[in-house]
Structure formats: C-alpha cells, structure tokens
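User: Predict the structure for this protein chain, please.
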Amino acid sequence: MDRTSQAEETVRRYSDMVYRLAFARTGNTADAEDVYQEVFLRYLTRPPAFTSEEHRKAWLLRVAANLSKNRLRYNARRRTDQLA
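Assistant: Here is the predicted structure, written as structure tokens:
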C-alpha cells in the first residue's frame, strides 16, 4: 500500500473518532474542527513509525487529546470580562 492510499484509509477509518474526541473535550464545533484538521495535518506531514494499527490509533487519539487541551488553555487565556 503506497503512502497516499494508506493516509486516505487512516483518515477514513479514524476521522469520526478523532472529531468526537475533540468535540467532547472542547465542547465547541469550531474548536473541534480545528483540532481535527491539526491532528491529520501532523499525521500527514510527520508521522512516526508505527509498530501496529493500535499504535497508530493511540497516537491519533493522544494527539487529539493534547491539542484539545491546548485549545482550551488558549481560549481560557484570551477570555475577557464584559465591560459594563
């Protein structure tokens, strides 16, 4: 299987799972979509050497969880109070 078809299969197989995790963590569709895109961008640009399909799945979910956490921190720092 060449690199392109393997990447397409991975996105097809895990896209729903990655998005659901991102949405569950962020609670916001826009942030979940940003996390989703960043996860697969990282996968396509610099994937590690996976030992198994379970390793690939765990990597994708761990990256999604970490990026979701980072997004929540980013949003919390930029939250402002309403002026009266």
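The first helix runs from residue 3 to 26.
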